[in-house]
Structure of Cytochrome b-c1 complex subunit Rieske, mitochondrial:
Amino acid sequence: MAAYGAMLYRYPHDEYLAAPGATPSSETDWPPAAAAAGAQAAEAQGFSSQTIVPRNQDVGLAELPATVSAVKNPSEKIVYDEYNHERYQPGDPSKRAFAYFVLSGGRFIYASLLRLLVLKFVLSMSASKDVLALASLEVDLSSIEPGTTVTVKWRGKPVFIRRRTEEDINLANSVDVGSLRDPQQDAERVKNPEWLIVIGVCTHLGCIPLPNAGDFGGWFCPCHGSHYDISGRIRKGPAPYNLEVPTYTFLEENKLLIG
């Protein structure tokens, strides 16, 4: 045990493990012979100087992961990965050409689809041929006798066409406009004094008045008793307005286009 109490030599520049009461300060405090004797005594007791390692020496632990090492050893220095991991380097001509091809093709497809959608929307708003045909009506006036009324159908509504006589025209112009419920001059309701064209729907509740009837020689609505004169103006009854005048044009002397 006396030999075991001798100092055990460790590695240079490290501390020594000494027996109780020994206070060596450095490696040179012990003679080489004493150090060798201590090592032999330790080996005789089952110890080896090779198993004693410095306290500040790495004992061979596995290297810590980078994330764990960053947590255990924080640093203000940030290292960024600036390596380009793409297959092609930036600015590679082959890569640029392919990108241009894809973008150009996509834009062409999108433009074609947008054009089709716009055309479809515009065409859906335009009227069909059947609707355009019903929008206007051409009427031959040559067969209408003076003093008579003809009814035609336009846009699902009846239209009264009356060929007025000189007496009818004078009667229409002799009315005091200020006394009318819906004041209108006869000249404002006709383009040709001989012809009166009005929509045959009562302005009260939409009934169809009877021609050549009523107290004023024009039209009479049997539903609620509205009376219209020879110019289609309301003269008596609950109707609030005159008979409506549609849009019309004289194509020829005896040709009328309604609508």
Q: What stands out?
A: The chain is about 25% helix and 15% strand. Residues 93-126 form one domain. Strands lie at 137-140, 149-154, 157-163, 195-199, 210-211, 217-221, 226-229, 234-236, 248-252, 255-258.
